[in-house]
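Consider the tokenized backbone below.
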């Protein structure tokens, strides 16, 4: 969007050091209060993490830090998120005596504030310790080791295809740092609260949809620290009315954030997943990450339902010839090496990209094209695997060389 370089880190830190920490009397940097510093062209932001009892006292510090950032050359927008420390990990729910969030902590739209009863409503399932949200039959994760391979595109269209195949389907956008479900489905409605204080997911294209993008103001930065991100995710899983007793959800499709970091691992460990679908492009660099993704699920005993090759080729509009822009067939070969099923390939398709940008899941309006057919075939294979209970088997042991 812009060719400007990001603001200079040293200058930014020097500016922040001029703001005093009222407790220690030191500059914010020396006091260790500048965390998750994000520098982008025209923008700077960080997380100011304080004890819950200090949240109110630090609101002016946050304002002063924002003003200091705005004084740095190249910073037009400054965002400092005041956040409070939580219990050490292992304590699922927040303490009942924890003071309410200070104003301006994390901006959540009115009426849509998430509650703190993270694990409470979960139901036990097969794997010890792993849970499944209430009234949801199957949870399927769509993951990739590498970012930008088309995971969200696949998740949205697989979910929509499952709905076309007659299932009750939910789509959970678990990418709290870069949510894409609102853009890809065109849903912007703020979720309403149900009588029993759950969030009612907006519905479109036959899907129940939940994303942090529906809860947090657009302007709020997506620079959550790990435990906050995990807690937001827990709540989007468990404090959302995905299904009712009479109408349980058949499948909840989770669009995972890219990579195999803490959030992904937590999700793979804590949620009783019926299985995972791994998306890759044919490039070698993406395929290396497929191994990591598969390995993570294998270690957490989540069955791999299959690997999908996205952007497999480009069909020449004049001749129909398949042009392998990023190479071709690598994901299939990798799946075979790993002993995971190969679910199929999706071509590079301009109409698919366009429909993503327009907020209209491609498959809903294009069921007979090769791309639409590919999504429907894959969705049906995934349904068959999870509904036959095949997805419940532990994945075969795989040995990795890297
Ligand atoms: N088969 C395809 N043909 C054309 N464009 C595609 C295809 N798959 C994905 N895209 C486009 O590529 C871009 C990245 O896709 P997407 O956001 O789905 O990737 P992602 O893996 O979810 O990324 P992230 O890692 O950031 O979450 C989007 O603009 C999307 O429209
Ligand atoms: Mg994505």
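A designed sequence for it:
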């Amino acid at each position: 969007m812009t060719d400007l370089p990001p603001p200079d880190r040293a200058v930014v830190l020097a500016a922040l050091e001029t703001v005093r920490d009222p407790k220690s009397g030191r500059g914010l940097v020396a006091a260790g209060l500048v965390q998750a510093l994000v520098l982008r062209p025209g923008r700077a932001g960080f997380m100011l993490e304080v004890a819950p009892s200090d949240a109110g006292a630090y609101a002016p510090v946050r304002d002063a830090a924002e003003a200091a950032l705005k004084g740095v050359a190249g910073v037009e927008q400054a965002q400092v998120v005041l956040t409070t420390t939580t219990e050490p990990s292992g304590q699922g729910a927040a303490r009942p005596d924890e003071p309410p969030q200070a104003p301006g902590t994390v901006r959540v739209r009115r009426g849509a504030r998430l509650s703190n009863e993270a694990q409470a409503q979960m139901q036990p399932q097969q794997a010890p310790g792993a849970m499944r949200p209430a009234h949801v039959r199957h949870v399927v994760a769509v993951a990739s080791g590498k970012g930008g391979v088309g995971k969200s595109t696949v998740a949205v269209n697989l979910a929509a295809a499952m709905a076309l195949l007659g299932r009750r389907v939910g789509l959970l956008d678990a990418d709290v740092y870069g949510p894409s479900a609102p853009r890809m489905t065109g849903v912007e409605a703020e979720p309403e609260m149900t009588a029993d204080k759950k969030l009612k997911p907006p519905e479109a294209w036959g899907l129940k949809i939940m994303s942090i993008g529906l809860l947090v103001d657009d302007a709020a930065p997506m620079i959550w620290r790990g435990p906050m991100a995990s807690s937001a995710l827990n709540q989007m899983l468990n404090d959302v009315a995905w299904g009712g007793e009479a109408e349980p959800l058949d499948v909840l499709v989770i669009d995972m954030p890219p990579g195999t970091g803490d959030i992904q691992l937590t999700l793979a460990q804590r949620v009783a997943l019926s299985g995972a679908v791994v998306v890759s492009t044919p490039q070698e660099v993406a395929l290396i990450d497929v191994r990591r993704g598969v390995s993570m699920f294998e270690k957490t005993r989540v069955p791999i339902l299959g690997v999908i090759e996205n952007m497999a080729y480009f069909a020449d509009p004049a001749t129909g010839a398949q042009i392998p822009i990023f190479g071709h067939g690598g994901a299939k070969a990798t799946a075979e090496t790993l002993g995971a099923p190969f679910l199929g390939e999706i071509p590079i398709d301009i109409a698919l990209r366009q429909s993503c940008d327009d907020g209209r899941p491609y498959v809903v309006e294009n069921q007979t094209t090769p791309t639409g057919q590919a999504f429907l075939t894959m969705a049906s294979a995934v349904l068959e695997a999870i509904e036959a209970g095949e997805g419940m088997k532990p994945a075969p042991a795989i040995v990795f060389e890297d």
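The first strand starts at residue 35 and ends at 40.
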